[in-house]
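hey team, just a heads up i'm posting the complex here instead of the shared drive bc the drive is being weird again. everything in one block, sequence lines first with there labels, then the predicted structure for the whole assembly after. its two chains so it's a bit long, scroll down
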Amino acid sequence: MNQEDFPMLEKDIVYFDNGATTLKPKCVIDKMNEYYYNHTSNIHRGDYDAAIQTNQEYDHVREIVGEFINCDPNTVIFTSGATMSINLVVFGYMRSHLKKGDEVLLNKAEHASNILPWIRLAEEIGIVLKYVPLNDDYSLSLDNIKKNVTPNTKVISLAHVTNVIGDVRDIESIGRFCHEKHLLFHVDGAQSVPHMKVDFNNSYIDFLSFSGHKMCGPTGVGVLVGKKEYLEEMNPLCYGGGMNSFFEEDNSYELKEVPTKFEAGTPPIAEVIGLGEAITYLMKIGMDRIQKHEMMLKNYLLEQIKDISNIILYNKNSNSGILSFNIDGVFAQDTSIYLNHYHICVRAGNHCAKMLKDEMNIKNTVRVSMYFYNTKDDVDKLVSALKNSKDIFKIVV
Amino acid sequence: MDDNLKREIILDNYQDPFHKGLVEEEGYCKVNTSSDSCIDNLDFIMKIENNIVKDIRFDGEACAISTSASSILIKKLIGKPVDEAKEILLNYQNMIGEEEYNEDLLGELNVYEDISKQPNRKNCALLPKVAIEKLLGGLGNDK
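-- predicted structure starts here --
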């Protein structure tokens, strides 16, 4: 649905790389251009019309985010993306609130951005990282989480939807469990917030990270949402203009309130405004419709692909628009190069989940990741290319 | 060279690569090579004795182009004096980079003469060159 909104789709392409980044609708591009053409100005400090408009639009995006994921707009922090959001949680909050021997529960399906910051913090202050084993279908169960919680466990950090397997974790139950056990709960929503309704206030989530560019928004902007009391105790990673109330020769200073204290320097203004437009656009379509459409397409793809004998599927049971596969005996990247011959955009590799190989015994896969603008026709083109893949090396070599 | 013959040589070397699989023996140096633009990840080991390339082996996961190029390059280099090996690598690099080169030095490696038409595959073809170059300590002349 809504293909006509996307300039990129005027080209003859099938875009199945939405897990990496999504296409941008014209309204988002126009909104950002409008800022550049008509009211370029910095936020917070101007008394002229353009600056007042920019300020209003920038601040209004927090309200849009608040409505979108049901959270207090004053707890919406703009970052450069989900990676920066997670780094802010780890180094801004956890570094000063965890101590040597405290345990953080992760799992091997996580993206690098939800593992490496923790590894670095373990190096710095001696926290212990534990990886909750995955089920046979690479999903994560609350039972396995419970089995790995000890009196030293302080944090559970996980992706709501993983980026290779696409399994949807039951964050409501996991959140409730964290709440009962007084564990901090960080959710990486990079692959879920763009695709389904996420309810911050009703999920016992303490911190939620996501990116703008994976949900029709521009690159360079993301969001961290957190419980107010935690954000008040969280330290900024960046200091400078816009986030302080005063500073003096005797080294005294005072920072502004949450969320401003986390946004030092000139933020990505056009990008934040563009993100607001993207979210408004998604809400108009409806997150439930988006999720339903993606599942319909994934099931349609599974139905078509099951008769192709040399395709190995890794995640046919996961409840999202992500399908990871290989052609038997063909290196994943050769498959993606082959599909590019048909203007089909997919991604090959480990998809930044470099520990997942320990669970799957395979390093690299081809990933199809869908969004609402994909169609059955797109799926037909992919299936047709895969059916012809006997001749793959005539094309890639 | 005829395109079908080129493809056949590349595929033979991809499907049944020469010296794929490492050995744990003394006298070998090892490097890992991967690139930002692709997901190929290969280890190479090499043994040099009396200034002669005695052995090269490789292992890992990589695409058809870099796997076959590793296989063909290794076949070409084993038994060569270090200087001659460097000369071959330099000419191979020049061919991929669309610069002047001596095709007589390259033998089967000439199957990649048109790879520059697919710019995103150049790095694949160069991956084993980069690794072996590192093992040889660069392509400069030591004399």
